[in-house]
Amino acid sequence: MSEKAASSTRIRPRIGRWEIDDQGEVVLLGTRCGECGEVAFPEHQICVNCGSESTSEIRIKGPTTLRNYTIVHQLPPGFESPWVVGYGEFDGQMVILAPIVGATRDELHEGVALGLCVGVTKVEDDGEELHSYQFTPLKA
Amino acid sequence: MREVFVVGSGMVPFGRYPNLLLEDFAGKAVLEAVADSGVNRKQIDMAVFSSSNGGRVAGQRVLRELSLTGMPIVNVENACAGGGTSLHVGWMAVASGLHDVVLVVGMEKMEKGLIPPNPGEYEAFLGKTLPAKYALRASKHMQRYGLTKEQLAMVSVKNHRAGALNPYAHYQEEVTLDQVLQSRPVAEPLTLLQCCPTTDGAAALIIVSAEVARQLEVKPVRIAASILKSGIYRNPAKGQSASDDDLAERAGAAAYEMAGMAPSDVNVAEVHDAFTIGEILAYENLGFCPRGEGGRLVEDGVTSLGGRLPVNPSGGRLSLGHPLGATGVAQVVELSRQLQGRSGARQVAGAKTALAHVQGGSTPGIGTGAAAVHILTV
Ligand SMILES: [Zn+2]
Q1: Burial state string for B237-270 with b = 16 or more CB within 10 A and e = fewer than 16
Q2: Looking at the structure, do residues A20 and A44 belong to the same domain, yes or no?
Q3: Mean pLDDT of B223-249
Q4: Average per-residue pLDDT in chain B?
Q5: How many CB atoms lie within 10 A of CB B78?
């Protein structure tokens, strides 16, 4: 994140944490329940599935399998239009919603593998760029 | 529990009231409901109001204009399900024996354009607008069951055709399939005419105990079931149904059980068509047809006026309009009048049993926040 973003006092929803590993890959930081095994991203200290308080961090990597998507044309200020969002499935464990960037219509269909990246999702009216995890077609 | 009856209904024409306050127009719906029921308005011993944008003590502000003060007044917020929620709260008050004559009001003034997300809705932050949420449900249904764009659009055509006959509807004009499909895309596959417009409005009901109903001259409509549920966590990656569908299914099943009825007993329904796909999914979730066959149900005309099970004879959210907190109450205004045989050109002949369904409000990870289902019978 930019210096500007880091110093912002804007309240933002907790979209989930991520880091970039040694290979430059985006890793999402979620939680796994110690009782029922359910994986959550963004993290949940209390399991979303069974209510157990015994959860621990889990590292979630791409690729993800696209389940479905929509091309959004009417958006709040700060988004590029059209903007694509879709649900990716991770190893039959969980689904995560994310923006999909750099894809043509032909590249978007159920079952296609997408990689994880990080990019600008929204630009605030004062120019502050808000970053998030995103899905993008895998490079051949 | 005691039996509860709808004995009066009132509504202002849905539309845009940019220069009026809630206090200026919601009271008209209240007075119409009171006059319709024949109760003395001083008999009202509790009031429940629903709105999402109404601000603090909205109900007290409206009733002050009518010199109705002193009683318990509850202000409910439950997004698109607020109206159904307020009826449920009123129903509890009468069913429990605590109150005999309860006023239920849904009212709203809307902001133009997209409904802004709550600050904590992280999926909205990523670009999942409310239409996008429904568009994602539509794209999934198209993939899995072969729902077509045309079938989706037919919901809008059907509901506008009904709305054109409803003097309370915001848009009293028919639209063609081509107009719906060619209107601008909002979130694919949903086009503008498949999304509810920005509408203000208010609707009111008087609900009473059997004892009070017997003293009135109106034809009472019995509330055979009143159910409110909230969403639970579901994991579609593990083959579980989506939480939005699961919620409506659970609310519907509980309502049928309470009423001792089955989906096949329903003669007319109002369901949550804020977006066309919402109505298709409601057919399936409420048991009007098997899973995956909602598109065919609308295409075959089953849910049109004149069909076996007319759905959204008011014009629905798409044509009547969708002032969030007012919607669930307006549905029951429409349905109670249908059961009383007062619906004019929109009358569903011989209707004895009606179902109202609203759901709405997004909670990340657990889908829709609330769903209310009511079954009415005469
Ligand atoms: Zn668990």
Answers
A1: beeeebbbbbbbbbbbbbbbebbebebeebbbbb
A2: yes
A3: 94
A4: 96
A5: 27
Could you tell me what percent of chain B has a pLDDT over 90? 92
Q: Do B136 and A70 touch (CB under 8 A)?
A: yes
CA B57 – CA B75 distance, rounded (Å): 7
On whether both A136 and A79 belong to a single domain, the answer is: yes
Strand (E) or helix (H) holding A95: strand A94-100
For the stretch B187-198, pLDDT in tens is: 999 999 999 999
A48–B233 C-beta distance less than 8 A: yes
| CB contact burial B320-349 (16+ within 10 A = b; e otherwise) | bbbbbbbbbbbbbbbbbbbbbeebeebbbe
* Same structural domain, A66 and A134: yes
How many Cβ atoms from other residues are within 10 Å of residue B92's Cβ?
17
The pLDDT, as a whole number, for residue A5 is 47
- Look at the alpha carbons of B270, B275, B276, B280 in this order and tell me if their dihedral is positive or negative: negative
The answer to whether the CB of B145 falls within 8 A of the CB of B90 is no
Report the CATH number at residue B323.
3.40.47.10
Torsion of CA B170, B49, B355, B36, to 10 degrees: -80
Q: What is the ipTM of this complex?
A: 0.94
Of B126, B185, B236, Cβ closest to residue A98: B126
Q: Is A67 on the interface with B (CB under 8 A)?
A: yes
Long-range contact list for B333-336, CB < 8 A, 24+ apart? B333/B9, B333/B10, B333/B11, B333/B203, B333/B204, B333/B205, B334/B270, B335/B221, B335/B268, B335/B269, B335/B270, B335/B376, B336/B6, B336/B9, B336/B205, B336/B221, B336/B376
Number of structural domains chain A divides into:
2
In the reported structure, the alpha carbon of residue B203 is separated from the centroid of ligand 1 by a whole-number distance in angstroms of: 43
What was the pLDDT predicted at A1? 43
Task: Note whether residue A127 is domain-resident.
Answer: yes
Tell me the pLDDT of chain A averaged across its residues.
91
Chain A contact for B238 (CB, 8 A cutoff): yes
Q: Which domain holds residue A125?
A: 62-140
Question: Angle B170-B171-B175 (CA atoms, 0-180°, nearest 5)?
Answer: 160
- Residue B219 CB neighbours (<10 A): 15
Query: Looking at the predicted structure, is the pLDDT value of residue B182 above 80?
Result: yes
pLDDT in tens, A72-123: 999 999 999 999 999 999 988 999 999 999 999 999 999 999 999 999 999 9
Distance CA B212, CA A36 (A): 52
Give CA–CA dist A31/A55, Å, rounded. 6
Kindly state the average pLDDT of the residues B359-363. 86
